[in-house]
Amino acid sequence: xxxxxxxxxxxxxxxxxxxxxxxxxxxxxxxxxxxxxxxxxxxxxxxxxxxxxxxxxxxxxxxxxxxxxxxxxxxxxxxxxxxxxxxxxxxxxxxxxxxxxxxxxxxxx
Amino acid sequence: xxxxxxxxxxxxxxxxxxxxxxxxxxxxxxxxxxxxxxxxxxxxxxxxxxxxxxxxxxxxxxxxxxxxxxxxxxxxxxxxxxxxxxxxxxxxxxxxxxxxxxxxxxxxxxxxxxx
Lengths: 109, 115
Known about the structure:
A: 109 residues; mainly beta; 5-stranded antiparallel sheet; 11 strands; B: 115 residues; 4-stranded antiparallel sheet
């Protein structure tokens, strides 16, 4: 079993829908990251979380440390949100990240 | 200009050839990483370096070697390429300070095809 599991693996929705992507992990962590990989391949960091909730524009990330679970939400989704979203955790005092397999999101106009 | 650059961006080569992928960064970070990405799999760590004199193997280092020529440069070599090394390769950097939570900054990727 992977240390970091994302669901769903693929998600297709219509423009305007509210999107939720989930990430569960099995180890104690010091931080969780959400990343976005564009269709051209580039990867950018969206959020770093160690507790609670963060919001940036239409994106919201939450984390529940006790349940070892994080969610990434997109409000009023748009075709430009189409990308692969990747969850990664920094386990305890480790200096490395462990990555989930990614969720491919497609937003149709 | 991009903070983390990779060369080449695309490469097609034949089995048995030696290949070097290069990574440069202008972020002033001490830590650099090489990952590979395969369809349906998460990013997997090949090698990482926390400073010029510190090189560490990641989870899939067999068949690869690295060189940290300077703080800003970290190269990945495939001594004798094989087809199952066909993948998308990413370089990343991070700040080693305690408050950084190991946020990593990625290069644009190198698509390598081994025939």
